[in-house]
Structure formats: C-alpha cells, structure tokens
Amino acid sequence: MAVESLEDKINQAGGALRMLRSAHAGAHPFPIPPQFTTWQDEQKSWHETAVVFEMRHMTDVYFEGPDVRRLLSDVAVNSFAAFGPMKAKQLVVANDAGQYVGDAILFGLGEEKVTLVGGPAAANWVCFQAERGGYDVAITRDENALVNKGERLVFRYQVQGPRALDIVTAAHGAPLPRIKFFNIGAFDIAGTPVHALNHTMVGIPGQETTGLEIFGPVESGPRVLEALLAAGEQYGLRQGGAIAYSTTALESGWLGLVVPGIYAGGATKAYREWLPAKGFEAGVSLGGSFASDDIDDYVPTPYDLGYANIVKFDHDFIGADALRRIKAEPHRRKVWLRWNREDVTRLLGDTLYAPEQARPRYLEIPYAVYATYQYDAIMYAGRVVGISNRTGYTVNVGAWSSLCMIDEELAVDGTEVTVVWGDPQGARLRPAVESPHALREIRAVVSTRPLV
Q: Is the pLDDT of residue 264 over 50?
C-alpha cells in the first residue's frame, strides 16, 4: 500500500504512539550556527544587554481575501473584536473535543491579509479548514529554511534584551515610533523599510526585557542585520546561535511543543488523510519517561497550557462547546520546575562514570530535549501528577529547570515533586536513545512564576 498521508503512516506503524515513539527525529533543529561567541555569553546577553536571533526556522503562511476574518474567527479560540491591521496576537486552535492543535503568532498586515508565523502545526490546521470550508481566501506558504531549499520571501530578526530599543533606535538613526505591546510599527533601517512587532521571547511583558521582531523583504535582510550589529556594538549586542536559542523558552515559559489532538479519533481522520506522509506532523517524535497506551493522555487542552485568558466565547469556533463544558473542570497548570542541584550533579557524573547497567540517560548541556515532544513523568506521593516538557540550563537562572504541566492543586510555589528522567520505551524503538539506561528520579521545586 502506498503511504501518502499521515493516516497511512500511522496505520503502517501500527498506531500513532508507536509511530511517534519510533521516529528518529530529535529536538526541533534551528538552521543557524550553534553559537557565535559561547552559549553562556549569548544567554547572558538577553538578560543584561541584548541578543539578535535570525528566525529562519519559522514557517510563514499568508492568508488573503474577503473571508480572512471569518476564517480566523471560525477556527481560533481567540477573540477578534479588537484585531486588525498592524496588530498581532498568539493564535490558538483546537479540535472539536477542545484539545490543543497548535499555536502561532498572527500578524495583521491589512484589512484582508494576515500571516501566521511559527511552527507549521497551527497554520496547517487553518489551511485545511480554509480549503474544506470553501472560504474565499488565497494561501501563500513561505516554508522555513529546513524545508525551503530556495529563497524565502522575508527575513526575520529578533532583537531582545534591556538595550534592544536603544540598538534599534541607533540603527534607525532617529527616535522610533511608539509601538504598543503586541502591535506592529513601521520605520526604516539602513534605508530599508521594515516592520517590527513589539513582544518578548525571553522575558515578561512590561519588564525591560521586551524587544522587537523585525521583518521585511528577504533581499534586504543582510543589510538590516549589518546595521543592527554595527549599532549594537556599543551596547554589547550579541548574535545568538542555535544552542542558546533552544533555551529561551525555559525563561519565557512557552510550552508549545506538545502532542496535538490530531493523531486519533474519527473527528480528525479527514485532516490526517489531508496531511502528507512526509510533512511535519508525520516526522515528529515522542520521548521521555511518561508512558500511556492512550494517546489522549498526551494531548492537553488550551487550559492546561495556560491559555485560559486567550479562550473567548464571544464567537463560535471549532471546539467552543467542549471548551465551554470543561472550563470549570480541574485542569493542569503550566509551571516552572527548579531541579535539585545535588541530584543533577550526581546525574551528570553518573552518565559518565556509573557502571553501564546503572548509567542514566545522558543529560545534554544546556538543553536536554532529545525528542520533538518531550514527556517526562512528574511524581508526587507515588502517583503521576504531570509532565515535564522542555528542560535545560541558563546562566540567568543559574540552575537546571524545566517547564511542565502539573495537576492544579500542586501548582503552588515551593511544592516538591520528582521528575523521572529516562526513556525505556525509546530505548527499545529508537537508535538515538541509549540502551540500556537506568531511570533516575530528580527532585524539583514548583514555581508559578519565571525563575529569572
């Protein structure tokens, strides 16, 4: 049988969980140099001065036409009452059961034109709904540099840190127009017209560590970057590489790499048949110590991810009935975990020196995620109470940490839990996971606020 769709690939693998567990993909790669100075220096820069990241790993999908607003309102949990040109929002989409499917940043480029920027999961879902629903919308894809072997349509640079606005102002050569948070402004750099979104990827809105995402025609990208680097020299600007970039979410708290609600069930079968067998959703992997035979145990709702403030019932949308029904039910909550220093130090040493049968899974520094979807079990009083997702180290936190979803009653500052580190299922199915290796319990403390 020809394997042409995601559904075909799932059937060939013997189920979605086996397909995900046996996939060879590691953590999501970033097509930029690993580091420009050192990853420690680059992490420190976004906390003390500023860093500039090139965002070639982002997928841009443009939607244009008279039905754009209706399409977005029909598929997204967000309200569009105040959305329009030169505004942005974090768009979140769910399936009919209210399960999370994806999220991305939505840019309002005109009255009838927007672009979704981020991983491809949310944009693919919106594209499918646009085609299936017969909306009068034209779709243009600008694939990320991992997929696009030609030239992209736009460049994107993130300038983040307490001196970000000083640097961009210097590159512009005059005071910048005032750009409100999650709004878009227009100005020029090195004679090139650019747009910039005011948001943060390494800090908290309202604090100094906000910054700008600058974008424009791809042919102008090198000239704009050169101007930014020249302007930033006096402020200690650093270029950020792939190693440091992978750790930004540990501080900002974006929990976006989780299993979406598309891999099972009749309601999403048509979508799985529409998705290609060699697309993003078919090539991702699942790793970690959390183990269940039911894929629904891996799929969160927007509430579990901390998006309760985004879900608005001022419009009808896919999943609205389910999300309205489960709103008052107990949910998991996104928190940070600070791992115990002694346990981490012992783990690192044992990955090198313990006897082979007692050797734990290698903890890669500074970012230890080894699957697209990292699911490590969190234990409390002998039971599983959540999953630890992204995990790593930043010099700004000064400790090993992870992002997690945890049962609501335990989302209290100072609660001590245990993270189970290791992947016994992956060791049987994937050559990139050591076999054998010993599971290791790591003590960790809950924080409901960022650790830096």
A: yes
